[in-house]
Amino acid sequence: MTKRIGLLGGTFNPIHNGHLQLANFVRQQLQLDVMQLLPNHLPPHKEQPLVTAKHRLAMTEAAVNDQPRLEVNAIELGRQQPSYSVDTLRQLRQQHPEDRLFFTMGMDSFVKLSSWYQWQDLLNYCHLVVCQRPGDQIPEQGPEALLWQQFGLSISELSNLPIAGHIVCLDNPLWPISSTEIRQQLLHGACASQLLPPTVAQYVADHQLYQQ
Ligand SMILES: Nc1ncnc2c1ncn2[C@@H]1O[C@H](COP(=O)(O)OP(=O)(O)OP(=O)(O)O)[C@@H](O)[C@H]1O
Ligand SMILES: O=C(O)c1ccc[n+]([C@@H]2O[C@H](COP(=O)([O-])O)[C@@H](O)[C@H]2O)c1
């Protein structure tokens, strides 16, 4: 029996309620067997996080502890080069030759997709699932617009999908939460407990993360 596997890559610095809402929304809408969260080791396009990959992995594990069908996959943590998604997807495709893979991202990521390493190969390995995020919309021109025009599907067309090759854009409610805002709050002495899963808020407090 083939599976429908969701993948959510992130820096998770720290993981927040927006990530969990995104993961669960996509899991339900696409009727996934599982949604795997993939913390990266060396984010390709971000300043390197001050908080180690080990802490970011532990927070991600703490966050999904009580979440059915959400799992952590630490596949990127063993690689010493930048955590390019195409490398991860190539590896996952080898492990799951017949399963449908759904690599999930917010619109802020999709609008910059053409800056990703070997971005034109991504759809050879997976489908892309794009969720709305405050501040960004499907581009009207440029490489991402062309990609969407060529490979975009509506949710009603999802029943008989191949294992890879399409883009689905979901009409999710907006979750106005970011790790940047949470780091700012923690730096200024707040506990950000409204924005973090309780286990993550506890981990942050126990390890005194983001206080400087
Ligand atoms: N609130 C949100 N709504 C929709 N998508 C989100 C949200 N938060 C994160 N994502 C998506 O989850 C993925 C991983 O996000 P990431 O770990 O970089 O969190 P972030 O909140 O964007 O971090 P930062 O503020 O440090 O840039 C990205 O594809 C991002 O677009
Ligand atoms: O492959 C790339 O070039 C690439 C460029 C930017 C981001 N990514 C991946 O996209 C996911 C979200 O990235 P970020 O920077 O928003 O945390 C995460 O898994 C990153 O490793 C991948």
From TrEMBL:
Residues 7-184 form the Cytidyltransferase-like domain. It catalyses: nicotinate beta-D-ribonucleotide + ATP + H(+) = deamido-NAD(+) + diphosphate. Pathway: Cofactor biosynthesis; NAD(+) biosynthesis; deamido-NAD(+) from nicotinate D-ribonucleotide: step 1/1. One of its GO terms (molecular function) is nicotinate-nucleotide adenylyltransferase activity. It comes from the Bacteria. Its EC number is 2.7.7.18. Keywords: ATP-binding, NAD, Nucleotide-binding, Nucleotidyltransferase, Pyridine nucleotide biosynthesis, Transferase. InterPro entries: Cyt_trans-like, NadD/NMNAT, Rossmann-like_a/b/a_fold. CDD domains: NMNAT. GO terms for biological process: NAD+ biosynthetic process. Belongs to the NadD family. Catalyzes the reversible adenylation of nicotinate mononucleotide (NaMN) to nicotinic acid adenine dinucleotide (NaAD). NCBIfam families: cyt_tran_rel (TIGR00125), nicotinate (nicotinamide) nucleotide adenylyltransferase (TIGR00482), PRK00071.1-1 (NF000839), PRK00071.1-3 (NF000840). This is Probable nicotinate-nucleotide adenylyltransferase.
